[in-house]
Structures are given as structure tokens and as C-alpha cells.
Amino acid sequence: MRQVAVELLGRVKVADGGVIECYRLQAGSLALETMTLGGAITSLHVPDHAGRRANVVLAHSSLERYAAGGREYFGAIIGRVANRIAGGQFQLDGRTHQLHCNDGRHHLHGGIAGFDQHCWHVRHASAGAVATIEFERTSPAGEEGYPGEVHASVTYTLHPEGEVQIVYDATTDAPTVVNMTNHSYFNLQGEGRGDVLEHELQVAADQFLPVDASLIPTGALHPVANTAFDFREPARIGQRLGMPDPQLQLAGGFDHCMVLQPATGGLSAVRHACTLRDRVSRRLLEVWTDQPGMQLYSGNFLDGTVTGPSGRTYQRHGGVCLETQGFPDAPNQPRFPSITLMPGQRYRTVTMWRFDVLP
Predict the structure, then answer these.
(1) pTM of the predicted model as reported, rounded to 2 decimal places
(2) d(Cα 173, Cα 345) in Å, to the nearest integer?
């Protein structure tokens, strides 16, 4: 019998007097824990080839550490706009908008207090054929410098067949920009169990977005052929990181948007984005999305100073992020797909994580 359940694990007060609610979703062999702070996924237990479950996402060891913020963004909802906006500035509807800059002179992952630093409201949680929880919050006009009031929601759904579905929704009362994602770091051997250099990655991308020294896209769409970014066939992450590619040197590893191939139904159709494999545990993760890009980030800033719930510290490349999203700096790049959201429109995007084991 395939168990499906949603459980409130508890409410925890943090230093600023706020209260964080923690939930656990169970569906078949998958178990996901999440919380209202940032809508963050704090654990995701997945079975290996022998049926042994392990948490395959990185996390902080305490809620207080999440509340303190930082550059890791473990498992959090990222918004209003994921990734970087050059100079923290863009033009829209005849006006120049200046955002808060938190990455040198640039705006990163929603700013100083983006969606990851706010408590979300649980609008709905239920267990039936699937386990699901929906988070929502209203981002007021002017938050982090963004125009317009935005009502956003993110829904996590666990399917007993081994799938996690994430649906992002947003509406606005004035022209604005929206580009949400989830910032989970995956290690298919298990959280805190070394690096992911031996993981094999395959990405459905013929092009990637090269960046400048401050990791802002140059505006070019560069072929992956004859570069470290060629994951059209499965390749070890460590083998690619070892290549003498100037783009890897600029970013200290992978921190680039892969341009996903369109599906038969068009670019907005849900399609296969990538497959991640671990030959030790034989766990396999497929990512499917309707987004045009996927930010490939190899945990370059992990440096052994963060301790996970396992009690082990996270070293460089201790996890890999596969962040489905619109292109970075899209408001300043006319060639990139637009992330503008207008009143009367609905932002809605779907990403799925499908887990399995290798034969």
C-alpha cells in the first residue's frame, strides 16, 4: 500500500519573535520536509537501489541558520527574480527601476530580503491520491525596489510514483518582472556524503549563456560543442570541471544558464531538461520543465563552513543545483525571453523532479 500523508511537524519561534511552521509530506517512497520560511525544502528522502532512503538535498542544521540568511539559499523559493540583474536596474513601462544590490553592484535572487527570507502562508495542504502543500504570499509594491504588488504562490506535490511537482503562480496589479525558481542542491549519495564530482549529468541543451567577470550574461548564446558545458551525452561533473575552459575560471566552476532545447509542442511545453545519475547509490533524477533555461551551479561557494543536519560540513561541490528558470538579466537583454508580467496576465510555470534507480 502506498502511503500518502501531510503532517504539521511543529511551530518554532526564532530570534526575531517570528514563528516558522514545518511540514512533512509523504507519498510512496518519497518524503519531503518543508517550512514556511522561504517555502524551503529542508529534506527530501529518496530510496537507493536497495530501498534504503537518504536525504538527497543539502540543508542548514537549524532554523535559526536559515533565518540568518546567507548566500546558500538551501532549498528556498527564489524571487521575485531568480539569478542576476545587472546593476540592479532595468527599464519597464517607460520608467527606470533601481533594485537593491546584494551581489556587488548587481541584484541577485530577489535582493537583500527576497522571497527566501519571508515567511509564506500555507493556503492549502492535503493528502489523497497525492500529497500537496501550497504556499502563498503578497509582495508589496516597492519590495526590494520592484514595481507593482505581486501575489505569488508555490505548490509542492508528491506523487507515489516518485515525482515531486513544483508549480509557481503569480499575478500583479502593475507592470513588473517575475522569474521564480527553487534553489535545492542535490547530492544523490546523500546530504553531507562528499562531493558530486562523480555524478553523471546529461542536459538537453545545445547552447549556454556565457558570462562576464561579474557573472552577468554577455547576451550571446554560445554552442556547448567543444566546451566544458557539453552535457548532451552523460558526463561526469568532475571531468567537465577539470577542463581548461575560461568560463569555468570566471565562475569558479559552473554557474551558468543552460539554454534548453524546445519540445515538439514549443518552448513553453514541459520537456526533459536533464538527468543526474549516481553510480554508487544508483539513484537517478530527471528534471522536466516548461522554462527556457536551467541554471547549472556546482556549489562553488561551499567552503566547509556550513554544517548540515547530518552533522557533516559541506565542502566545495558538495551539491549541484539544477534551477529551472527564465534567463538571467532578462529585463536588460532584448534577445532573451521576456519575464515581464502585466496586470491581467498570469505567471505560471511547472517543474518536475522524477526519481528512479539505475538497473
Answers:
(1) 0.96
(2) 10
- Using alpha carbons, select from 103, 76, 100 the residue that is nearest to residue 89: 100
Alpha helices (runs of H) in 193-347, residue ranges in sequence order:
237-241, 246-251
**C-beta atoms surrounding 300 within 10 Å:** 15
- Does residue 183 have an active-site annotation? yes
* Active-site choice (33, 143, 286, 323): 323
Hey, what domains does the chain have and what are their CATH numbers? 4-357 (2.70.98.10)
Residues 6+ apart with CB under 8 A from 16: 67
Q: What percent of the chain has pLDDT over 90?
A: 92
Burial of 191 (0-12, 13-18, 19+ CB in 10 A): buried
Q: Rg (Cα) of the chain, in Å, rounded?
A: 19
Any bridge partners for residue 207, and if so which? 223, 259
Convert the pLDDT of each residue in 298-322 to its tens digit.
999 999 999 999 999 999 999 999 9
Which member of 60, 183, 256, 317 is catalytic?
A: 183
How far is 154 from 151, CA to CA, in rounded Å? 11
Give the cell for residue 274. Answer: 536533464
